[in-house]
Design brief:
By secondary structure, the protein is an alpha+beta fold. Helices cover 34% and strands 24% of the residues. Strands 2-1-6-5-4-3 form a six-stranded antiparallel beta sheet, with helices on both faces.
C-alpha cells in the first residue's frame, strides 16, 4: 500500500495573488512539465474558490473542501479567516488520507501563517520571504500522514 504525500502546498492572499508556494515533488525526478502542471492545478484551485459548490465538493466544514481530482492527485482547498486560501495537492494513493488529517494540516499551516504576521518586518500581502515560516511549513508537511 502506498501512502499519500503532499506534492505542493500554496497560500493565496485575499486578492488571489500567490503568497507562498512550495513543491515537494522535485526530488522524485519530476520533469519541468510536471512542474508546470502543478502550477496550473494551483491556479485552477484559486479559480475553484470562486466557482461555488458546482466546482467543489464540500465536507462537513464549509472552510475545507476538495476542489478537484485527477488520476494522480487530489487538490484540496481551505479558506482561512481574512480571506487567505490554502491549496494542498496530495498524491493519489491506494491508501488515501482521511479528510480530518488534511484539514488538520491546513489549519496548522494557517496558524503558522497568522503567527508570521506578528513579525514587525512583515509587509502585508507581499509574498513571504520568511525562512522561519518556510521551515515551519516544511516541518508540518514532512510530519503529515506519517503513521
Amino acid at each position: 500500500m502506498t501512502t499519500p504525500s503532499v506534492l505542493c502546498i500554496s497560500i493565496v492572499s485575499p486578492d488571489d495573488s500567490l503568497f507562498f508556494i512550495k513543491k515537494y515533488n522535485t526530488n522524485n525526478g519530476a520533469s519541468p512539465s510536471d512542474d508546470i502542471e502543478m502550477d496550473s492545478y494551483v491556479f485552477l484551485g484559486i479559480d475553484g474558490f470562486g466557482q461555488g459548490k458546482t466546482f467543489r465538493q464540500s465536507f462537513k466544514n464549509d472552510r475545507f473542501f476538495i476542489l478537484f481530482t485527477k488520476d494522480w492527485c487530489n487538490v484540496y482547498g481551505y479558506k482561512a479567516p481574512l480571506g487567505y486560501k490554502i491549496i494542498v495537492i496530495i498524491s493519489a494513493s491506494t491508501n488515501p488520507p482521511n479528510q480530518s488529517s488534511i484539514q488538520n494540516l491546513c489549519e496548522r499551516v494557517k496558524d503558522e501563517l497568522f503567527s508570521s504576521f506578528m513579525n514587525p518586518f512583515y509587509s502585508p500581502f507581499a509574498p513571504t520571504t520568511s525562512p522561519i515560516l518556510k521551515a515551519k511549513i516544511d516541518q508540518l508537511v514532512s510530519a503529515a500522514f506519517v503513521d
